[in-house]
Design goal:
This protein is α/β, with parallel strands linked by helices and 280 residues long. 40% of the residues lie in helices and 14% in strands. Strands 2-1-3-4-5-10 form a six-stranded parallel β-sheet, sandwiched between helices. A two-stranded parallel sheet has the order 6-9. The longest helix is centred in the first third of the chain and has 25 residues, at 62-86. Keywords: NADP, Oxidoreductase. This is dTDP-4-dehydrorhamnose reductase.
């Protein structure tokens, strides 16, 4: 069963698991404990939780914060209780935003969480609820490129519109393409390595958002210099209501590799993605 099947990753999971029952929010509101408790879970051996409130900046507002905590923490807790009661495997999607990104080097699964914003706080709290279940996978990922709006599509639009954007150039990470993330999730579900937390992103040399934007612009026929860089500090000074982001979002992929998950380099995947987008 896929919960949150209409979202950026959920819709990709639905394609990757055609045999699954797909639930959208109208089918199951994970934030409502009574609804989750009454749901007919006994038929399902594995539940993939892709439900999440992911508007990082809106989560800083009062209404957004309430929505983030309701879905990301309370929703995860409700599913965790159902997993214990009905003994199904719960696979839960997490994020690099549970970390501050103030350390250097790749971040391991057992690094202490230290979120910088409400979204990260709510996700970290949800992770801790899922971790209490005996049969769980927490899949931490970052910088997802999937269905609907994403950074690469936004940069393509700017490139085609003749814009010259200024993009943050001191946050490092790797893109994660949704299809590759879903393939890794299928590997966990099918092969059942040890339960626990796994970092899953695309592999390759980390880059900044500005560096990725320049690659997109070049693919669209523009030039490197059409994308300017700036620091996160400068960005937040201009947009003080935006949520603070980690400077280091590079996740250690050793554990995932160790259980046989194939992790493709993000740069060839970006090239393939852009070729598809540019011929649409």
């Amino acid at each position: 069963m896929i919960v949150g099947a209409a979202g950026r990753v959920g819709s990709s999971l639905a394609r990757s698991f055609p045999e699954a029952t797909c639930l959208k929010r109208g089918d199951l509101d994970v934030g409502d404990p009574c609804t989750v408790a009454r749901f007919g879970w006994s038929r399902d051996d594995v539940v993939l939780n892709a439900a999440g409130y992911t508007d990082v900046d809106a989560a800083q507002s009062r209404a957004g914060s309430a929505a983030a905590w309701r879905t990301n923490h309370v929703g995860a807790a409700n599913l965790a209780q159902a997993a214990i009661r009905h003994r199904f495997v719960l696979l839960h999607l997490s994020t690099d935003y549970v970390f501050s990104g103030r350390t250097t080097g790749a971040i391991s699964e057992d690094a202490p969480v230290d979120p910088l914003n409400v979204y990260g706080e709510s996700k970290a709290a949800g992770d801790s609820e899922v971790a209490r279940t005996p049969r769980h996978y927490i899949v931490r990922t970052s910088w997802v490129v999937g269905e609907g709006e994403n950074f690469v599509r936004r940069m393509l639009r700017l490139a085609h519109a003749g814009q010259r954007p200024t993009i943050v150039d001191d946050q490092f990470g790797r893109l994660t393409f949704a299809d590759d993330l879903c393939a890794a999730i299928r590997h966990l579900v099918v092969h059942r390595p040890a339960f626990g937390t796994y970092n899953v992103t695309n592999d390759g040399t980390p880059a900044t958002w500005a560096a990725i934007a320049r690659k997109v612009f070049i693919a669209a026929g523009r030039r490197d210099e059409d994308v300017s860089g700036r620091t996160t500090r400068e960005f937040l000074a201009e947009f003080p209501k935006k949520a603070e982001r980690p400077l280091n979002s590079v996740l250690d992929l050793g554990k995932a590799r160790g259980v046989g998950i194939e992790l493709h380099d993000w740069e060839p995947r970006l090239k393939e993605y852009l070729e598809r987008e540019l011929t649409r």
